[in-house]
Known about the structure:
CATH architecture: Alpha-Beta Complex
Number of strands: 8
Strand content: 5-15%
Largest sheet: 6 strands, mixed
Order of helices and strands: EHHEHEEEEHHEEHH
Shape: globular
Strand order of the largest sheet: 2-1-3-6-5-7
Radius of gyration: 17 Å
CATH superfamily: Spore Coat Polysaccharide Biosynthesis Protein SpsA, Chain A
Amino acid sequence: MASKNTTLIFSIALNGYQIRYRRHLESQRRYAEKMGYEYIVVEKPWVTNLGAECCWLKLYLLRAALTAGYQYVLFVDADAYIQNDCPELTSLVKPDKFLFMAKGYSGKLNSGVMLMKSCPESIAWLDQIINAIHEPVSDIDTVGWGENGHVIHFAKGCDGLEVINEKWNNTRSEQCEDYIRHFNYGPMKSSFLDIIFHRIVFKFSKLMLRCNLNKKSEMAEKLKKVQERIPILFNRVISEYKVFS
C-alpha cells in the first residue's frame, strides 16, 4: 500500500460545489483513508470571481503538489464518486508514463480524473499548458469552457500519457461496473437539481468574466482574464492549504 507521505488525492469544491457534492467528496475521503493516501478538498474561498473557470486551478495545484514532494498526485472532480471497491492507484502505474487519464463520453480525454507522477517531464507538461492559458485551442480540442480543451490539446503526442480504462472515470453509463463514477455535464448528470445548479454556476461565470463563455469571438478575451485571475486564486489557496507548499 502506498504511503500517505508519497501519494496525495485532492479535489476542488468552490462556488457551491462544497454543498452540492458533499456525498461525493466523502467517498473520496473514505477511499484515501482506506488506501493510506493523503486527502484534501479545497473549499476556500467559498466563492470566486472565476465561476466555473476556477477549474483551471487544478493545473496549478497539481504542479505545486508534485514539486512539494509527493510521488503521485490524483486530482478528482468534486462531482466524482469513488466506489468502495476501487483498486489502489499503483495498479495504473507504468514506469515510462507520468500522466494517466481516461476518455469521457465524448471520446475525448476527460480531465476530471487525472493521476500524475512526479518527474521533470510531468512538470514541463503542466508548464506548457499553464503558459498557454491565454491561447484558444482548436475547435477539435475545445469543450467550450475550462481547461479540458487545453489538456486534450497538449496530451496529443505526449509520450508520457497512458489512456486508462473508463472504469476509472465513468462519464458514460450507469450500467458500467466502474471504480469512479463521474457525474459531469453529460449523460450521467440527468437530475433536475444538477441541471439547474449548473445553469446557475455558468450564468454566474458569465457575469464574473463579463463575456459569453460559448462565443468563439470572446474566447481569447475570456482566457486572458482567467490567466490574470488564476494565479491570485492559487496564491490564496496555498496560503490556506499547506500540503501544496
